[in-house]
Amino acid sequence: MDARIKLSDRISRLIKNDIEKGKYKPGDKIPAEPDLMKLYEVGRSTIREAIKALAMAGVVRVQQGMGTVVNAVDDSEPIDSRLRRADFDEINAVRQMLDKEIVSLAVENHSQEQLKQMHQHLQSRKEAIERNDRQACMDADIAFHITIARAAGNSVLFNLYQSFTNVIRDFFLKREPQGIGQFAMSHHLHEQLYNAIKSKKQKAARAAMQQILNNNY
Question: Where is the HTH gntR-type domain (predicted)?
């Protein structure tokens, strides 16, 4: 990821934080580009990238002749849409908490059929790595983790996890370089996770999950 994109992401988060704190309220115009450049001490292209990202996330709208206006929050908005506007680091932190709880429950509550499905998805993941098929690898990886979430036996937790997974998958699709390097490097950890769940080894399962999270896959 190049430095300019990283900087624009940071600026979009700062503007979003100011909106959440009430500095800019729904219906308000945020400052014009020259003022934002001075306020955040960055160039015009960075400000434009940041505003574009906020507009795509639905946080603001750019109106011709009016400038950039803060959108109102819709309480009836689906959770997936809200999550896509949230800060990625915050999303990822909550997802990590969910993953650890889900693994603990899956160790105790999984069925033999769910174990079979986990194994099948793990095999598909391995075959996709060998073919260098990134999309198939990502699909198998998500299916593997979703099956673990289902095996936890808590429908609310499962629905939350599914929403977080969709948002994070979209993030990596847009931002990560093409290839299967990280999938390949973490495959043995997924095998360790599966074996720990199968053997009902709580500590080993949580340790494997933590290492997977440390690798971002």
Answer: 5-73
Q: Which runs of E-coded beta strand occur in 4-148?
A: 60-63, 67-70
Contact between 92 and 168 under an 8 Å Cβ cutoff? The reply is: yes
Amino acid at 34: P
* Fold matches, 3-70 and 79-214: no
Average pLDDT rounded to a whole number, residues 179-208: 93
Task: State how far the Cα of 62 lies from the Cα of 163, in Å rounded to an integer.
Answer: 28
Reduced to 3 states, what is the DSSP secondary structure of residue 193? helix
Q: SS3 for 144?
A: helix
Sorted by where each begins, the domain ranges of the chain are 3-70, 79-214
Cα separation, 155 vs 161, whole angstroms: 10
pLDDT in tens, 91-129: 777 778 889 899 999 999 999 999 999 999 999 999 999
For residue 58, what are its two tokens? 């639905």
Contact 124, 136 (CB under 8 A): yes
Q: How far apart are CA 12 and CA 3, in angstroms?
A: 14
Dihedral angle of Cα 61, 62, 63, 67, to the nearest 10 degrees: 120
Query: What pLDDT is stored for residue 130 in this prediction?
Result: 94
Reported CATH class of domain 3-70: mainly alpha
